[in-house]
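Let us practice reading a record.
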Amino acid sequence: MGETERDSLPQKLRQWWEYKVLLNPKDWMQIEVTSKCNAACAYCPRTVYREHWHDRFMSLDTFRRLLPTLRKTKLAYLQGWGEPFLHPEFPTMVRLAKEAGCTVGVTTNGMLLNEQRLAQVMDAGLDILAFSLTGTTPERNDPARAGAPLVKVLEKMTMVQRVKRERDSVKPVVHIAYMLLRSGLDDLEGLPRLMADHGVEQAVVSVLDFEPGVELSEEVLAPKDDQELHALEERFTRLREAAVNLGVTIHTPSFAPRGKDDPVCAENVQRTLFVSADGEISPCVYANVPVDQAEYARQGQPAPYSRVTFGNVNDELLPVLWRSKPYEQFREGLENNRPAAICRNCPKRKR
């Protein structure tokens, strides 16, 4: 039973009860508006699985089915495995999420961003605009991010700075989503200065938690022993301190063991969810790569991959899907250290 039945009073009452009473508030919802991309980053599943990839665009009807949940969600992040600015209705989606009361953010490679598109999302109320990088020099960034050269990304950041000044606007705040590969450790030192020079307020440094193939396993940054752990901690401390001295903020990965009061995984799956472009809901983006079947790697070992989903918002109300027995069992398994197969060796459970 979908939300197309809203004309009837019983259906309206059911929806009110499901969303207002039974649905617990969410910290964030990650919404994949499209799985299509105009870049070909070497570490991205879309590049590795290109022969089996499904390019999809979320319909506005599907997006509107998420709005009752977004009214009880702090952050709507409109990006999954694709480039959001490819979607012709992206500004409308930003506006609808803002009207629902969310903080709205997006991550982009920046290549499709021009003044007209920037004005559209600013008028729609976009709060956070994050640019993806894998290096602070063209020599490090560009080979890994085919189709999104560093010089072009920096030009887009400069344009955002200028347009914000012209409009006397503080939004959107500019962030960097930085993918740290093991081979790029030294290049990371240039990040604070790059941020300060281009109006970037915050950067989140991530490591390669999803390995779409064993050929990428050597780029996974995970300390091999206590000595390497200590060296990484010192490096990240220096990086954060350099950022503070320049008036910017950098969040770095933590490899410390998870505390007893921490979430069961870094994706906070007890209070968040991911919705793919076709409307399927999953605990996180890593569980919902748009391929029918593939092989990925964990700790350098190949393993079969298949999507882990718990229903489609086009077929049923989201609160009902959230409370479904399989989804509840999935979350309970994580809480009780009995994780599903896709989570067993996931590094997100350790941080």
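A brief commentary: The longest strand covers residues 173-180.
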